[in-house]
Description:
mainly beta; nine-stranded mixed β-sheet; about 5% helix
Amino acid sequence: MKKHTITALILAMTLMLTACSNTHTEQTTTDAQQTESLLPANAVEIALGDSEIKVDGTPADGDESKAVYVANDIIYYEDGKDFTYGEGTEKDAHSQEDAAEHTVVHISQPGTYSVKGILSKGQIAIDLGEDAEENPDAVVNLILNDADITCDVAPAVIFYNVYECGEKDEETASKDVDTSAAGANVFIADGTENNVSGSYVARIYKPDTVELSDDGTEVADAKKLHKYDGAFYSKMSMNVYGGEAGTGVLNINATNEGMDSELHLTINGGNININSGNDGINTNEDNISVTTINGGAVNILINGETGEGDGIDSNGWLVINGGTVLASACSFSADAGIDSDKGIHINGGTVIAAGSMLDRIEDGGQNYAVFNFKDKQDGKNAVTLKNDKDEIIMEHTPTNDYSVLIYSGENLKAGEYTLWSGDTQLGTSGGFGMGMGDRPGAMPGGERPEMPEGMKKPENMEPPEGMGKEPPEGMMPQMRPDGNKGERPEGFGNSVGEASEIFEISDGANMFGGVALLE
């Protein structure tokens, strides 16, 4: 059995016994220090293969009493069902023959598991039983160690039942959560490249809860049995860590959403590249979920296969304390690079987000700027932000077309800046600033974020041919609740004040409207 070194095993054991809380803890350690001290030891080795799967060198079998066993029992949305089965369409359904080709690697006991090898039709499923949600010892550490997993009918990796350290109480919900005791933990091993390609499971009704309308032609009410939107999915709060050096890579290719958690998601490290048909990252408990990014690098492309998609979508809060976040929303829908129902807080790190909508950014610990363009911008053109010394503070080429660009970085200081598209200067037809609290507006900065050492951009991160720029044939742009078809609402991005080629930045938050090429 391979042993992974650890410098502070006592700390790791302590975290397993500590509950999730809404108490904010200041981050005083580096990402490397965090992951070095938390890297779990004594991993069970799972070697994937299409012809055989081995556990610590022994072929796996279907004995459900073992910590790891295999079966052909994947949960998926079955075709040929009527409307009382679920909410899926023909596009969401799969045949029994397709499902049976998938091997499920079940992890059924707490512990640390290192996964490597290739599984071209299958799934890693973690389920510690129905009582696990309330058991602080029901913790699984999943180490991705050069794993390549593809699932055509469901998520490729899914945590069903492990310890849930959070509470689904809207009255006490807060943006400040500590998920270190969560039962779902993912580690991206240093020096490895891991590929997870997955589908989703549309909503399936719990059979004995289905109530029909008076005329029996539609479902009036029903409880959910299954619904898993992401290629990498957790029903419980989940943590993601990198290794000590932070060089491990996780590439997620998703038919629908990329990485999802039903409650909280905390990213502490690693290099995560997501190419998804819908939201790149989603946490989906309304007014409660928190997506927290403390470190690592997250690179998100929404390819538009479903006709919509935010880069990051939290149904509660989005809190960015560190790391690098690059997010491009769907080119042709009313979606945002970063989206949150309860507010976005940028306290550190580097953030570059491009989309067609702006969601509320609250007062945070770091300056940021929002540029609202008069016309949709071509994602192929590099955008450069320069300070008054003509030094490049930010340079970035958004992956998709966009009309809203958000930038935040530690190098963005109060001062005067110019904005460029290629070699052409941009200005405003009249800018407006928005202060947070009693602070006037401010603009973010920071040099162009370089990919951390060891981070790779997979070839398939580019949108499929014909996708990512225009809606798929026959698909109309998605609407926001206000009826907006991807265009900004009336008044959004309009400017107040004199036209200017200088972007005046002060500490806090800045918004600039009417940005366009200078004539």
